[in-house]
Structures are given as C-alpha cells and as structure tokens.
Amino acid sequence: MVLVTKAELHQLIKNKVMKAGLPEDHAQEVANHLAYADSRGVHSHGAVRVEYYSERINKGGSNAKPNFSFRKTGPSTGIYEGDNAVGMVVATNGMIEAIKMAKETGIGFVGMRNLGHCGTLSYFLRMATDENMIGMSMCQSDPMVVPYGSADPYFGTNPIGFAAPCAGGPPIVFDMATTVGAWGKIIDARSKNKAIPDTWAVDKTGHPTTDPFAVAGLVAIAGSKGYGLMMMVDILCGSLLGIPFGGHVSSMYADLSAGRELGQIHLVINPEHFIGLDNFKNNIRSMVDEIHALRPAAGFDRVLVPGESSEKKAQDYEKNGIPIVKEIYDYLVSDDIHFNRYEGKSAFASDTLD
Fold first, then answer.
1. What is the full DSSP assignment across 71-96?
2. How far is it, in rounded angstroms, from Cα 259 to Cα 215?
3. Could you count the other beta carbons within 10 Å of the beta carbon of residue 69?
4. How far is CA 259 from the centre of its chain?
C-alpha cells in the first residue's frame, strides 16, 4: 500500500482522466468524486476505477464534449439528458436541478438519461444534505445478478442511497447495492488478491464461491426481497425514462467506444414543507442519540448509524493518509493512459479489475 493525501490523489486522478481526453471541468468532477470515495474508505469506487474510465474516455465511450439539456416536465419533475458523458458529471448536474426544485416546491425528482457509470451515490446525497434536504438516489448497472430462483443473471446491482440531515452532527447516509456484495467489492478483492465471503456470489455452475476471479453472478440481498428492490430500481431508472432495462442494459466492457445509455434518478425532499427544518433535524438527532444509547451486542463497542463508520474512516485518513494499492498508485503516476485490459471483456473475466 502507498499512503497519499486526498489532495495528491485528487491531482493524480484529474491528470490521468484529462490525459485520456476529458476537459478540465469534467476531470475536476471525476477527481472530486473518486478522491471522496477513497478518502472515506470506499476503495471499490475510488482510484481502482481510473484505468477503466480512462480507457472508455480515450476510446470515445464517454462523451468528452456532450450536449447537456434539462427539461422540466412539471413543477417538481424533470429529465436531464446526459448525452453519454461520464456519469459523475451528469449525476452532479441532475442533483443540482433536483435541489433547485425542492427549494421551490418541496420536492425535486430528476431522471437522468444516457450517462455512464456514476460512482458512489453518497456523493450526490451529501449534496442534498449540505442544503438541509433529504436525498434519495438510485441507478442501473449491467446484468450481473441472478434473480431469486434463477441460474442466469438479468438485473444489475442497482444501488439505492438515502441521506438525511441531522442537528449537531453529520447526516445519516447509506448507499447500498441490492446485492449482498457490490460488484465494486469484487473488483477490490481482485486488486488485493483476497477471498470474498461465500454469501456474495456464485460461480458458473451456480454454486457459492469465495474466489473473486471465479464469480459468474452476484446474489441479491435477502433473497426474493432484494430481487424485488433491484426490479424497482430498474423500473424507475430504465422503464420510466424510456431507456434500456433489465437484461438489455449495456455491458460495462463489451464496446468501450459506445455510450452506456444508463439511467438514474434523484429525489430531493425539503423538510421545511413538512414539519419544518429545525423540527426534522432535531427528530433525527433524537433518533441518533437513542440508537447510540442502545446496548451493543456481543462483539460491538457501540451501535452506529449509517454513515458513521465512513466519517470515522475519513478522519483517520485525513490524519494518517489514504492507503492506495501500489499497482494502482504506480498506474496513476505513470505516463500510460490504459493497458487495453477492458475492451470486449465480460465483467466476470478473471483478469478484469473493473
């Protein structure tokens, strides 16, 4: 591992994606996002992604000169057209529009069409809580999850995120795949050559595996319940927006010169239009305090709320540095844009790190 500061990591990522072809403002947003992920211990969505993004940018699959547009479809709804730009830029712009509407009407619901992989949802959710709003976000991903009762993949990991502001402390934030383990966790395990729990995935025979290089399908959380959640996400982010859904969602790797055409939604709620902002934030504060006061189970020192562990990790990394896998660091400081490792690969290919 190599320890770096957040500022150093940000600059390395920005330099690399600019060299791949992104304009500086888009590269800045990508670096903001990936450095944020690594700085909070979400290494599955940080610098490990840079080589893949760079290859797709360099080959034209991420549009470096997009024609963005936003169309309001009602007082509180709208569609943001991403023109297959990098997902972080599109989703950031979509959240800005959702916040604007929520300030005016109490609710902002924005569907984003035709964007690339957006990274962590919590980044966008914190944009909402920074404005004292409640945020929800969901997005599609390519088919790699076996539906409950199936031997074949159909849906993506289709993550869901939620955040709410809290009086006198950091917001409540959770960002979860609808699978037991996110695909990014498989990537992270591959980069570190570490085994995965046998509850995360199945191999090509449909049996549980601990080998991240043998994964042929991920498993939904809580069986049929997780299956229902990932279907809900796909309906809201695909069918509702008139773009590919389910098994028709594009592969992350098949053609890196083509846009992904993914869908995502942001929902922002203004507490001021309900019980008032102060009352709401104080309610959340009371909830957090009551949860902290619960007796911890065996093996736990304290009962935490969603987002607390990443806050602690961020404080530790700010003081001691962010650990980056040496192979990834060496790539970031190299002159290479990419090594042609991803074009035409299956997500499940044993030598695929993303």
1. EEEETTEEEEEEEEE-HHHHHHHHHH
2. 25
3. 11
4. 18
For the chain, percent of residues with pLDDT exceeding 70: 95
Q: Phi first, then psi: give them for residue 169, nearest 5 degrees.
A: -175, 180
Instruction: Determine the Cα–Cα distance for residues 193 and 191; give it in Å rounded to an integer.
Output: 6
The confidence score (pLDDT) of residue 353 equals 39
Q: At what angle do helices 50-58 and 326-333 cross, to 10 degrees?
A: 40
Q: Which residue has the tokens 């509850």?
A: 199
In the prediction, which pLDDT does 205 show? Answer: 85
Q: 322, 3 in Cβ contact below 8 A?
A: yes
- Lookup result for tokens 């309906």: 235
pLDDT at 304: 97
First vs last C-alpha separation in the chain: 19
Write down the pLDDT at residue 151.
80
The values of phi and psi at residue 163, to 5°, are -150, 145
Grouping H, G, I as helix, E, B as strand and the rest as coil, residue 248 is: helix
Residues that are catalytic: 117
Our CA angle for 253, 49, 262, nearest 5°, is: 50
Question: pTM of the prediction?
Answer: 0.91
Task: Give how far the C-alpha of residue 124 lies from the chain's centroid of Cα atoms, to the nearest Å.
Answer: 9
| Residue 185 main-chain phi, psi, to 5 deg | -70, -35
Question: Would you place residue 66 in the very low, low, confident or very high pLDDT band (cuts 50, 70, 90)?
Answer: very high
Rounded to 10 degrees, the C-alpha dihedral 316/49/164/137 comes to -170
Six-digit token string for 21:
């072809």
Contact predicate 145/217, CB 8 Å? yes
DSSP result, 99-152: HHHHHHHSEEEEEEEEE-----SHHHHHHHHHTT-EEEEEE---S-EEPTT-SS
**CA distances for 48 relative to 52, 66, 72, 83, 209, angstroms:** 8, 25, 36, 25, 23
Packing angle of the helix pair 6-20, 326-333 (nearest 10 deg): 60
